[in-house]
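Summary for the steering committee. The consortium agreed at its last meeting that each partner would contribute one worked example illustrating the joint modelling workflow. Our contribution is presented below. We chose a case with several input lines so that the handling of multiple components could be demonstrated. No manual editing was applied between input and output; the record is shown as generated.
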Amino acid sequence: MKFEAVTIKDIARALGLSTSTVSRALRDSYEISPETKKRVLEYSEKSNYRPNPIALSLKEKRSRSIGIIVCEIANSFFSQIINGIESIAYDNGYNVIISQSHESYEREVINVQYLASRSIDGLLVSVSSETQDLEHLKNLHRRGFPIVFFDRIVDEMETHKVIVDNFKGAYDATEHLIKSGYKNIAALAGSEYLSITKERLGGYRKALEDNKLVFDESYIQHCLHGGMLYDEVENALNQLLKLKTKPDAIVASADKLTTNCLRYFKKLNIKVPDDVALIGFSNLDLTDLLSPSLSVVRQPAFEMGQLSTELLIRQIESKRPVTDFERRILPPQLFIRESTDKDLR
Amino acid sequence: MKFEAVTIKDIARALGLSTSTVSRALRDSYEISPETKKRVLEYSEKSNYRPNPIALSLKEKRSRSIGIIVCEIANSFFSQIINGIESIAYDNGYNVIISQSHESYEREVINVQYLASRSIDGLLVSVSSETQDLEHLKNLHRRGFPIVFFDRIVDEMETHKVIVDNFKGAYDATEHLIKSGYKNIAALAGSEYLSITKERLGGYRKALEDNKLVFDESYIQHCLHGGMLYDEVENALNQLLKLKTKPDAIVASADKLTTNCLRYFKKLNIKVPDDVALIGFSNLDLTDLLSPSLSVVRQPAFEMGQLSTELLIRQIESKRPVTDFERRILPPQLFIRESTDKDLR
DNA sequence: TTTATCTACGCAATCGTTCCCGGTAACGAT
DNA sequence: ATCGTTACCGGGAACGATTGCGTAGATAAA
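What follows is the complete predicted structure of the assembly.
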């Protein structure tokens, strides 16, 4: 099945003109007489002519499309980010091509190569939780290919980066727990390789220290897949609850980590917040409807998507190679609900 | 900023061959000597040559990309669908371009035209809740452009269609309520224009009639934006609760409708299921964690995405125009939880 | 009248790739 | 010596659009 569109040649043939004249007429060039323009415009209107973007891409060596790499789109945070990306891309005449790593390094590499071969003009990346080796991205970056990292960034590459203040988010969450009287606060963290994990654990640790609580390594559990698999969360929590002094509160550092934590407590009939309090990073828009309603650190996902895309498009359209890169840090928001506050119940 | 890739010409020049020879060597043509092939292959490997898909698209008049139109990707059902779409598209070497209508007819038209002008090979569509006029799609369809509808389909166009058995889903949900002893069952429905609304209300009505309960028009409330706005749900529920005989159970026919309904009850301190029972269509993967946990009709979203994409790609790659179109109906799944069952509490 | 200037258009190259035609050796058969 | 085959390879058009350059014809200036 082919779908034949009207081309500039068809117009030229029909009107007895050359393609160059038609092209110039359509672009309203001064060297085309008003009447010829009128004829061309009318005919192209009538025949529903649309310029072929593929031909344009070939000539101009740009496709007006940008690639996105995220772990999962079926995740509130990322779908909100993509929403933000799409809104800006759309306004600037770019379309977006989304691909998912499903937290797999291998898949991420394949996707990057695939997107690169698709002649995209730039890349928005949030790396997978398995990713350590960055050669697949550095390779493009070295050749001047525009890349912007968001959320899960990497230190060793000089690009624009957009994140939230993960340190502050975790600090505030932890401090809130401390102020609420919790003393044995554990951390349920994502992959150790991820920037966000390090930053959030940093905030967690600092809050403990600032409040004269001991920081204990055994109170930290990592889930390589960021809680995507229920089992890894279950294992991590089993470890924590086996400790001599069980934690009385948990800070979870990712969406799935937080909800799977709640699922675990529900399954084991552990009361939240009476037995254990829970606060976590989450962008779900129905944490208020959960049982108990969840205290969360929420990230301005939509704005992150917008900002990342603005930076990327600016770089793509820049005449000169960009040398000074921005690192934009957006504020997280703390929402206190039942899961950390016995009085709210 | 430009990003210069290695082309077939570069290889030809470097090896002192013609582009045709290089091209043939790369495609393993029989008329190229083994040693020439080897040289070409080695050099293209070394120089990291990747065929330019844009040039290929121009020649072959196909872009190996398919367009998706949904209302919102930040909606579990649709993000799961997109997941399914992406998995099949990926396996077949297609990439997907997603666009969102945000339930706006105008935006949908713009997106369709944009995608069409981007030389996509086919379109997967779930119409917006405002859409009545289908000229923007019929236009493409008349010209033989492959379109597959999923979930929110339209009767008046002959294409492949993939849906769940909405009638059965609503029937089962309603019947479950009746069997649980509820007598005054109201329906919170989406836009009247949507196929899914009609089908679901049909199932609701039939279940009532089969069980000798009166069907009352005033027990049906429509939300044009499918519950995307909390206010429209609030208004609808206010209407229902104003009735002389208040409903003792509600069947909600969309994700946001269901959750916003729960939000409303929580806000007004209406006990679920004691005051009013609630069951709804939803693909959230944490309805089990809500308070109360939600009884839902769940759709096999991932499979719907896969199936739709298979049908679309089959049509795209078909040699002859496709004339007999399939209408595939997948089974919904009923999950009974606390929101409709007092004993589970 | 001659020359210069301007108007309005066409030619052809270009982007990267494929593929239809050729073409030219080398070799064996006649 | 001539012809036919086979094996290999190159030239060039094509896909759709843009654009630098060339130029015919008209007009204006000398």
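Chain B has twelve helices and twelve strands. Residues 294 and 339 of chain B are 5 Å apart (CA to CA).
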